[in-house]
Amino acid sequence: MKEFDATVRYHVIEGYGPAAVYLPALSFPSLANFLPTATHSKMRGFRSILIDYLGVGHSERPSDFDHSMQNHAKIVAKILDHEGLQKCVIVGHSMGGTVAIYLAMQRPDLVSELIVCEGNVTPGGGMGTQYFTSVSETEFVTTLFPKLLAKWRKDGRDGDTEAQWRCGAWEDVDFTGIYRNSKSLVDLPANFKQSFLSLPLKRTFVYGEETYPENTGEIKADAPDPSELKRNGISIAVVPGVGHDQMIFNPNAFVEVLSRALDRPAH
Predict the structure, then answer these.
(1) pLDDT digits (tens, 9 = 90+) for 196-212
(2) Does the N-terminal or the C-terminal CB of the chain have fewer CB atoms within 10 Å?
(3) Taking the mean position of all CA atoms in its chain, how far away is CA 215?
(4) Kindly report the CA angle at 201 between 200 and 205, in degrees rounded to 5?
């Protein structure tokens, strides 16, 4: 990636139909986030592109990259240009949903449909990014995040499956990148949600049942008001039995929702 003087890597699962591009959550390797989805029998036919952000997975970790959502979107666009793709279905989870929205804003020619899975659409961040950015970058990198990883390792050894998954996904990432990604999400522009609402393309917002505002009574940066989305032509879907990490802890139900959003009948 010449513009950023770094190598970004991604995984391709060949198919004969349209391209589905998977953008993972905050500093998550794409395979940890989306491999069960992309390889599910009900997603056969899509050519799947699973992207590792800079600082994550198989991609390089440049120390001077700002990890802004805008620049992550620019990198995704360069990948799709390199692959000769247009009019892709973009599936983004959490941070990936925000990157997907920026991609549609920057390069509408590359996007036919957005599926945003609890992506941040307003500034302020979610519970995790708020906590991460409550300290300085240096303190996060040297103290806060190493302590979190140690706690998750212990909890995982004690049988906490979510801690096992989270520690495994975040064990080998650029800690500085996690912090800067979090800061970019917390500091989203005030008009970002309106830009999302105004996009002239097919959009679906996917909630987990446990984080759906009609069940929790809470409107958050990554759980916006469903009625407002509907008024602006955005379809709503809810994955049963899970919260924010929908495709991780109920993968079959997530694929069912994804299939309906893509107008692909469940077989």
Answers:
(1) 999 999 999 999 999 99
(2) C
(3) 22
(4) 115
Pull the structure tokens for residue 104. 């549609």
Residue with tokens 């794409």: 30
Residue 266 carries which side chain, given as an amino acid letter?
A: A
Q: What is the DSSP secondary structure assignment for residue 45, as one 8-state letter?
A: T
Q: Which alpha helices (H) appear in the chain, and where do they start and end?
A: 30-38, 69-82, 95-106, 127-132, 137-139, 145-157, 161-170, 175-186, 192-197, 213-216, 226-231, 246-249, 251-261
By C-alpha distance, which of 221, 219, 258 is closest to 238?
258
Neighbours of 154 (CB within 10 A): 12
C-alpha gyration radius of the chain:
17
Distance, in Å, from the CA atom of 10 to the CA atom of 52, rounded to the nearest integer, reads 6
Is pTM beyond 0.85? Reply is yes
